[in-house]
């Protein structure tokens, strides 16, 4: 068994021998003793280089020192050459450089022979003193090969948990990847950028500046000159020796040396190279590196700049049309969260947030947390919390974890104290209106520079629930001069004596959402916080709090909120509609709540498709309900069974003279769905007396042929006011008949039903801030029509969706119970003002 080389020990030996040589020379020691010491030093250096693939302790190819005579002859030759060959003098004078250049040229020629398409590795170049690259911006050419992107830099940033400090910019004009520095300079080249990041954060966990670290980094860089196969072979041989008793090449944790060496091997996080079976140490190292979460995230960031996702061994479903990949997402490690406040019912705006969070959690095989943000006891109720759970089920969302911000109140309170003790928060008793004015004018509070002791005294007073403490609140000390108003010392803790619906009277002060959210997101392992673009200004506040409290950073993914015409989503305004009796409750079909729109007939799959179709957009647009319902209709049409009904009050009787009598009980069989035989058939009762819609027979004439849908052709033989007679023609021409009519046999056993249609709650498509919104409340939002329906309607259950032919699609809100409690059907809009040809509704249907 081969023993691993201890490079650190060799370096110490070389250092000690060098110091011994200096000591002997300065003390005028015996020449023999000096020569022996020098020879021992030379032997140690040579031994180090032999064990390190020819690379010396200084990171350069090892060359034995020249004797005095050799040096004198070399200097003489160089002097003679200078006069005639000035351009090559420097190279000739330095045999080490000459040998290195010769080796590089030889390697390049060999590489070109094996692969004419080989591109030489780009050199690391430091940019000029001034730069147009913004600080903390990383420019990447999305058209550049993967290995020319900053995988080492981004790996370092992820490992240090500072990746979110940097903005990745896709710049097709960028020749080489570069990083903007805080000093308004820039640095180019992956390794140089990585070292710059380490210096920016003064972090030595990945780079400890030891000779061993530098040795491995220089070695990895030198391998770039070799063809890919030779390079990989050299790495494998080196790893087999170095990793017999360790996992990483330097020390016991992953370091910059590992990253640079892995990059030299092609950074194979997506596909591991095929290695010799006996190379067990190298195989172990490659697997460890390829599966490391930070390296996978860096790979995703580098591929994502070109709008491509890294393909790891775990397969993913293709992105749904309209959706964008999550930046830096790694399969199995994505955690999203939906944090509703239990102060009202979920509405259509919340649907987008919860469906996007659920989609990403499922696609990346991660977890979805539903966290109730119960930080305001004045507005929260158990009723709302239960309704949210029910509505999530209606949407088909099953969270992996359900949690409560209130579970973290002790931790959040300690975090608030930590901010005070760090001088990053202070207590303020400035009246609310005055505070608002001071923030607008960027004027600091008189308490901003109070002592930690005073801040703690008032904080404890506030938390005690005392009357004196009620005037105080805790404010974060961020930046009162900022153009971003959310950074002007926001309130993050205030007193509230209302009993909490979960905690009772245990607490008398509560954190704001702005303080609680970044803390709990970090503690619960959230990887991506999806927030609407209206929170963009607050994103900086979110990041500031996580940095101030030294919390694990969370990536923010922004999306636009969904707004609809003629729709109010304010909880305060929706509450008014409920409490004033304009609607029957939060689940009324006119309400934009989840339960309201589903009751109206919104298909959940259609809703998901609609949300996904514009999920990646960050532009806030005003959506048209009619456009959505047109798409909704397409989904409903796939499975809605067909039935018929006629108006109970406005109908006429047609006598089919050769039709069957009521006593005969004759039926015709017809498919439940004209395009899907799997939905079965139903029997339709036929009879001499048939009920027709009055509007359908206007202008009808003797001799005219009409089609009774699902039965056949009837030729009209008599028209006398509202009395019609006709003769069934089994051989009649369906195509020749202009009127194709729905009808109902006038027999017992039909199903009485009430058709209900709705309109919007407000009459203006978009209300402006200065509008008196109550002036636009629609006074006519519901209308009903009694009909006589198919006997088969009695078989339907609540929530079934059907089509009444020539009328439209309906959702069963109440199944048929008896003649006193007839069936109630809710009309589902179809994306047009007229519900069906010839059948006008009673409302406008904007």
Structure description:
The protein is α/β, with parallel strands linked by helices. The chain folds into six domains: 1-58, Helix Hairpins (Orthogonal Bundle), CATH 1.10.287; 137-303, Glutathione S-transferase Yfyf (Class Pi), Chain A, domain 2; 335-404 and 562-635, Rossmann fold (3-Layer(aba) Sandwich), CATH 3.40.50.620; 408-516, Glutamyl-tRNA Synthetase, domain 3 (Alpha-Beta Complex); 642-745, Ribosomal Protein L25, Chain P; 751-828, Ribosomal Protein L25, Chain P (Beta Barrel). The chain is 34% helix and 17% strand. Helix 6 (151-159) runs parallel beside helix 7 (190-200), helix 6 packs across helix 12 and helix 18 crosses helix 19 (536-548). The chain is elongated, with a radius of gyration of 39 Å. It starts with 6 loop residues before the first helix and ends in an 18-residue tail after the last strand.
